[in-house]
Amino acid sequence: MITIPTLDDIRDAAEKIKPYIHKTPVMTCQSINRMAGAEIFFKCENLQKVGAFKIRGASNAVFSLTEQQCQKGVATHSSGNHAAALALAARLRNIEAVIVMPKTAPLVKKEAVKRSGAKIVLSEPTQKDREKTLEQVAGEKGMTIIHSYDNPKVIAGQGTSALELLSQAPNLDIVIAPVSGGGLLSGTSIAVKGVSPETQVWGAEPEAANDAYLSLKSGKLVRCDNPQTIADGLRMSLSERTFSIIRKNVTDIITVNEEEIISSMRLVWERMKIIIEPSSAVPVAAVLKNKKNFSGKRIGIIISGGNVDLDRLPWMKQNS
Question: For 78-97, how does the pLDDT look when each residue is reduced to its tens digit (9 = 90+)?
């Protein structure tokens, strides 16, 4: 039986992780509001520890471990933000961490993992290769695998961001989060539907990695293997657990193309003066692309992270 976290689990997680995370600010931007024809509240997880919301779920999972589990350490596979988050959470609890990362992971994210003292093991970029390498690495030492999204403690931790958002910007009509493996969108949907049932939850996804969109439309779990998108944090596929939560709670998923992602990322940099990564730009692009769905609404957007390789910005690549 699949364990699904509850609103109480998210509230418990919020208390547990409070000493280890930032309560991130909610920002607004009048010029983007005018462009969208809506009132948008940006939950800035790019200003979170390790530069992403992932520290919430990783901390909840790590600080829920028994002492016996801690003695053998933790392991995961991740393209970057969960890797850095688990590495930091493990350091905070003074336990060993091994992170399997695809060879294609951005250098900025590999460096973040190294700074927290975790060991990196490289793998081929496909989900199958990442999972196989993780099983080998964790099995050798009996480490606890903390999956980046298919873990109820992780999902509950991720939901704490939306819990904060609803207290900082009440009476929202819609909350939108990017979707990859679905941990953030699942946790967000549980928190929102638990606290404010009338508020809709939407997902946003790259067209080039649209497994969640296809899954929601077909009613069957669809997987994408090694999709190619500038939004490197959104390349994973849903699990049975996250799919079941999303099917129940999420109104719809909007897809956006690569050009729309890049232009929205640059827009936020220019107008809001904050650094966001391509994955964070996906829900922004979704709102700007579908103004008819959001016109006149109060919208919360989870800005999921801000870890960017400053030497390889996407608009520089376009113009080279």
Answer: 877 899 999 999 999 999 99
